[in-house]
Amino acid sequence: GGGGGRSRGGRRVQKGSNLRVKIKLSLEEIESGVEKKLKINRLVNAGDLSYTTCNTCGGNGAVRRVSNTILGQMQTTVACPTCNGVGQSIDKRPPGTDVNGQKREERVVTVNIPEGVEDGMQLKVRGEGNEGPMNGQNGDLIVLIEEINHTHFVRDEQHLLYNLRLNFADAALGTSVEIPTITGKAKVKIAPGTQSGKILRLRGKGLPSVNAYG
């Protein structure tokens, strides 16, 4: 969404709207973190715009309004309705731009994805959204994380679940097997008499927390 704030002179600073993109990540990328280059189309201000001072507010961005109440006349200051509080308007704009003097431009943005992100998580890259009209503040780029299902693992928060199939003899007599992990393989010792459904834990072989707590 757009919006705006106020400068010290009282004029409104328009903010560009946010851009949203979806990015698909493998568990391997989530485990170690990854740098992604994203191609986005965003609104930018044309470089050869000509501005003129708003005649209604004289460039202040605000006008005084007098209203009659039971207590007498009340004077309030409101954003100028002509220029929407900016204090100026576009006098001339080049062909191919919209009413705000903006046009679409392709841009490549490098986004550093931290390790341990989760499906559905949103990352904010400040200032990489649409530029603010009238040289206002840029919007943000919102990156939505989508996790690609893995061939071997099911994710449970920071834990990874792997379904190991054993024949009856190995389960009854015990054995050692190699199982996959995100970073390679690990050897697991199966104790004699291990029952189906038993969970064996390999510490430190899951995913890192995005908050670096474990």
Folded structure, characterized:
There is one protein chain. With 214 residues, this protein is mostly beta strands. Helix content is 6%, strand content 45%. It has helices spanning 27-32, 168-173; strands spanning 3-6, 12-15, 19-25, 34-45, 50-53, 62-69, 72-79, 88-92, 102-113, 122-125, 141-147, 153-156, 159-162, 175-181, 184-190. A three-stranded mixed sheet has the order 3-11-10. It has a two-stranded antiparallel ribbon with strand order 1-2. It has a two-stranded antiparallel ribbon with strand order 4-9. The longest helix has 6 residues, at 27-32. It is elongated, with a radius of gyration of 29 Å. It starts with a strand and ends in a 24-residue tail after the last strand. The mean pLDDT is 84.
List the main descriptive attributes of the protein structure presented here:
three-stranded mixed beta sheet; two-stranded antiparallel sheet; 214 residues; mainly beta; 2 helices
Strand order of the largest sheet: 3-11-10
List the total number of helices: 2
Tell me the helix content. under 10%
**What is the H/E order?**
EEEHEEEEEEEEEEHEE
Structural class: mainly beta
**DSSP, total strands:** 15
Provide the low-confidence segments as ranges.
none
Largest sheet: 3 strands, mixed
Q: How much beta, percentage-wise?
A: over 45%
Shape: elongated
N- to C-terminal separation? 35 Å
Concise overview:
This protein has helices at 27-32, 168-173; strands at residues 3-6, 12-15, 19-25, 34-45, 50-53, 62-69, 72-79, 88-92, 102-113, 122-125, 141-147, 153-156, 159-162, 175-181, 184-190. It is mainly beta. A hairpin with a 2-residue loop joins strand 12 and strand 13 (159-162).
